[in-house]
Amino acid sequence: APVRYDVPQPYSTHAPVAVEIADMDDDGLSDVVVNQRAGIAVLRQNSSGTLDPAEFHASVGTDYDCNVYTLAAGDLSGDGLADVVDKAHADTEYGIEVYTQNASGLLDPPVAYALAHGGANHLRTGDLNGDGLSDIAVMLQSTDHLAAVFHQQPDHSFGPTVQIATPSDDLWSSRALLVDDLDLDCRDDLVIATNGNWDRSKLVLHYQLPSGQLGPPVVTAAGDIPSAVKSADFNGDGLPDLVSFDTASFRITFYMQSADGRFGAFGSVPVDDAQMTSSHVMAVGDINGDGRPDVVAASGINTPG
What we know:
0% helix; four-stranded antiparallel beta sheet; 2 domains; Methylamine Dehydrogenase, Chain H; single chain
């Protein structure tokens, strides 16, 4: 049976909409990180296998009633310790915040980096210039740019940003990001799912070149407003494929990679629940032990009446 853990809301009610699992104190146990109204909360696993009460870490933008919408956890600085990055906005100010885990197993106060545009709320990490350091890709809602990449510097700070231009006028905003090695060349690539109904919804792929730069956009048709995108080998041919959760049609669409590296919509399956609302949360993994990847999408629910 599920175990419930309450996460206190220190400033106002803002239900967690992002969650990550990582070892946040270097004790070998997996902990839970969730977003908050004005920061993040860490629920540390104890020796009994349960989670301790939530430990709140304030955002830099607390004084501005800062909203934290999405986060990622992992070793950003290369020291073997899990760090946290979130995307937040305060009034008209937008940016990311990086919480670095120190040698004591605690999180240092966040360091903020400004964004020129706000909008949609999604970020991913990966080495997007081939220098061996983790970078941060962030969605933008802009008519000119779909995403921005904060490149990590040798001193483990981030910036300046490299903005990813919109490849055509009919692609006007992004919905979700994916960072993964799609062409199996040991270099991370970037996938951007764009907004728009049916023929305006696209997946924009930027393959990383041997120079470390992201290559020109490769655009493929997508489902109806894809709000989440993941990768896995769904047909057993050894090549990563893509899957999206399509908000407007409530369908999960699969895109199989061919031998020449192209992605085509293989088919989709309906999510048959009239009460479901939009989803930005989707996970891929083998959840029934048959050795094949499965897809799980989480959604809000409209309560009748």
